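General statements about sequence and structure are easier to judge against a single worked case. For one protein, we set the task of working out the structure tokens from the amino acid sequence alone. This step matters because it turns folding into a mapping between discrete strings. The amino acid sequence and the backbone structure tokens for this protein are reproduced below.
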Amino acid sequence: MSRHPPTPKCKPRTATPAELRDAIRDEALRLGFDAVGFAPANLAPKARDERLQRLGEFLDAGWQGDMGWLGKRTEQRADPQTLWREARTVVSLAINYAPASDPLEILRHDERAAISVYAQGRDYHEVMKSKLKALGRFIWDTYQHDLKVFVDTAPLMEKPAAQAVGHGWQGKHTNLVSRQFGSWLFLGEILLSVELPADQPETDHCGQCRACLDICPTNAIPQPYRLEARRCISYLTIEHGGPIDRELRPLLGNRIYGCDDCLAVCPWNKFAKQAREAALMPRPALTAPLLAELATLDDAAFRKRFAGTAVKRIGRDRLVRNVAYALGNSTKRETALPAVEALLEDSSPLVRGAAVWALSRLAPEEFARRRKAIKDRDDGVRAEWLAPRLEEVAQ
């Protein structure tokens, strides 16, 4: 969140609310945003109460997992005007990041890593923030209206705001769906201290479709419009810091950072066009890297490879933990097993524990032999060695 820039020397331009709205829209499109819309910042009591109720149900069920921050400042999450009392208009801005090819194709190549589309280029927060600040500068320099800029940096519910301005609707997978851009929109907001004419909100067009629910590998969408984050692969591989539940590890497949399944399967993607923002274009080293290669990354190599991307924020150990699980799920034993054996000696207990599980999958006899003489002193790693394997449980 950021405030308006310093006061300029020039005299502010006068404009009617409709003229100001149109000028902001034109400048936003010039800056490279793909969609821009306007909605009132103050919610009707009924709409605010509905948001609070749904958020409360999510939190009461404990579906937020390790994301404890979701339970804080809930009033502000439900109503933009409680975040900033002077706010009168929400300007919701979106950038298209649609991929050139089907993100599900990589899942057929289990010797390679599947990285979520949004994380294959430059961190979208930086791209969005730069454009939002440029737009905020234009508004302040030209018209001198107070404003605040947001890009996933404050308790502002971005998807409801995007629906309120007409960008799309929250689909059954809880993500935004657009008739023009499908599932592939990054969102950011500007709160303005001036009231501007509002756009028409979008309505739900999911109909009877269940594609996103049915494709989820971990059944993280138990019913339409309800997401249990604790089972979501994006949450597990990005937000969750410890070992992933054993029952879920086989379901990760080769996904090491995020998951695009519910987004990619959406029928509305047939209308999506490939992203045009150069900074968001996928880096070749991140589109389909070999798992065995990623397993060799130390901290310096990790930082170099993922510099400027969203992947960097989870750190080397968490990423290589995910890589180890993916290696354990690979059918390419001849390349996966040597990589896993090397990770058994990793300096991180988190990685070593994941490697133990992977070894039990790839080489059960070798796992059984090593388990008889456990040398690792970390309690968590020892627990992985001693945990019963699935066939042992079945017996």
